[in-house]
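Hi there. Long-time user, first ticket. I'm pasting a complex I've been working with (about 732 residues overall). I'd like to know whether the download I got is complete or cut off, because the file seemed smaller than I expected. Thanks.
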Amino acid sequence: MPRVIDHDKQRADLLARSFTLFAERGYGEVTMRALSRELGLSTGSLYHYFEGKPALFRQLLLARVEQDVADAEAEVPTDLDAAGRMSALLGYVQARIDYLRQLVLMSLDYYQLHPEDRPFLAQVSRRYRAALVDRLGLPSAELGPLLYSFVLGMVVHRTLDPESVDLPTHVAFLQQFAHALND
Amino acid sequence: MPRVIDHDKQRADLLARSFTLFAERGYGEVTMRALSRELGLSTGSLYHYFEGKPALFRQLLLARVEQDVADAEAEVPTDLDAAGRMSALLGYVQARIDYLRQLVLMSLDYYQLHPEDRPFLAQVSRRYRAALVDRLGLPSAELGPLLYSFVLGMVVHRTLDPESVDLPTHVAFLQQFAHALND
Amino acid sequence: MPRVIDHDKQRADLLARSFTLFAERGYGEVTMRALSRELGLSTGSLYHYFEGKPALFRQLLLARVEQDVADAEAEVPTDLDAAGRMSALLGYVQARIDYLRQLVLMSLDYYQLHPEDRPFLAQVSRRYRAALVDRLGLPSAELGPLLYSFVLGMVVHRTLDPESVDLPTHVAFLQQFAHALND
Amino acid sequence: MPRVIDHDKQRADLLARSFTLFAERGYGEVTMRALSRELGLSTGSLYHYFEGKPALFRQLLLARVEQDVADAEAEVPTDLDAAGRMSALLGYVQARIDYLRQLVLMSLDYYQLHPEDRPFLAQVSRRYRAALVDRLGLPSAELGPLLYSFVLGMVVHRTLDPESVDLPTHVAFLQQFAHALND
DNA sequence: TATGAATGAGGCTTCATTCAT
DNA sequence: AATGAATGAAGCCTCATTCAT
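Hi, the file is complete. Here it is re-exported in full:
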């Protein structure tokens, strides 16, 4: 009888455990050897689960979007008013700011290393943005991209110069800004 | 005596010509061999001018800040009112958006590859931000970082998903936003 | 009891279906994984039928000689005169030229990869040659090897430079040549 | 001042010394590591001289054709009559039979491993054949390919079953055969 | 009997940097 | 001052075979 292992489940588990390494070193600096060591299997086995490093990363990203979007939806109830939803969403972002930072950084690293796969990153980015827009039910269609840009900006700013970005200030500004728009 | 000047001039010239390659491929994907070929000298000579790849890149970045800040100051006259200065500055950003994009991307690539040199990137980032803040003479001290974050965000958003970022919309928003703040 | 028969029958079937893959890619480029996928079983099962890749290939070759020799004997009736037998044999070769080409190529590939098993290839080669010699009943004992060399040569020449080998010309030459020898 | 080394000469020397290894193990079984060890330099250096393993092999083959054709022309004087030229050429082949064997084998190995480069092998093959045809000044245009096929065949036959190929017999046959054609 | 996950050595190739010339 | 050959560790990936289930 075949060894009974849920291949997909195992893969999902490997992806989840991979994230840490990518977060610490960035896509390009994570070697398949290091990854397999971290995951406790041989390089050969790693290649049983994933076709290669780019494929692994793509699946990692896809798994993350799904999870993140689900989390965001759980944290931003639809029965709140606009201000409340914005508030909840900002809470979500603020609580995960460093996670998002790592996600953006590794994506940009992948962007540089795999120019042929940029459309994929665009799709992922749109998925995040769509979730944000949908959830907020923003009055103006243009605000989604703006807000999304701003979050990306916070994240990059925090990367380049962590000490100069005061998260509460940024978030407070966004909240105030949203208020103004709702009037 | 003129030797030194020539040497520096030559170095500045090499840096300027290096930018294209870094912009096209990112810091990590530019090899010293490719760089020397592009610049028309041997790798040995390249090492006469620069101590190594990281040193070269640092100098490239420093040269860029100087130039960019000077350009910005030239384009944003101090005798304009707040709204005018903001307008001029946004014009500056809008005209150079892809250049800034490349600059940010290569810096983030360097960030991943040289964790030991992150403080340097923080300094460079602060220099840019300070120029922006100084030039705008923003009423609130907190607005500088916010604005700077937003510009970084536009740039990254444009990278990940070029088709979804409408530059005029973004800029118009910023302008309108600045207006509101001045009242 | 029927178990064993079935097993052998199954193995013969697997060998027959393996040939295509070896023909397309050559011995060295066929992986056991690819083979098992092509055959519709797991690698583990493949190893139930054959001890390993070299063993599998040996059996493949043996199965082929048997079949080919039988085919040749069927196509070259013993009641023809020398010229007729030669004619029939050339027809056989001409009709199967690309099959023979593949067979020779994969054998040479195996030759390079398994130096320890070269005697086996020699045996197989002799078996083919003996069939040719026996069937033709050549007047001179030396002609067999010559003819056999020539067929091998056609096949390799066709491999290296397909466009330059005109099969009918080659065959016509052989026929004419045989004629001369019979006089 | 640059290290004064004749890059092309060095490359030619490396190719000449590479041949032995390819002859012993075949194209596929020669690793770049083994090659660099044999040649007394690092893998990195090997890649300074050649773009990669296939490129190296191509150049090896090209160098060989040139040399071999030159040798053949030196050994087959044009002032001989047809029979004499044939005789001289057969002497050339007979003396180098194992060298030619190795050359053919490594080429066929390359053929299997680099399907995309088969046209190159066709060119090389034609070059050899053209030299043979030109030198012999064969009465019939069709004899060139036939003779060439036969030589290839001898070589492969000798590979598969060395003990069964008596070189003098093969050569004598060819000579006798050529005689017949000249009448 | 059948499965397929697991192994791990080893393949080709890259690259920042050095140093003899 | 300038050259570019040389280094060698390390990257990604492959594959015949085994063995727990």
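A couple of notes from our side: Residues 53-182 of chain D form one domain. Chain D has a mean pLDDT of 90.
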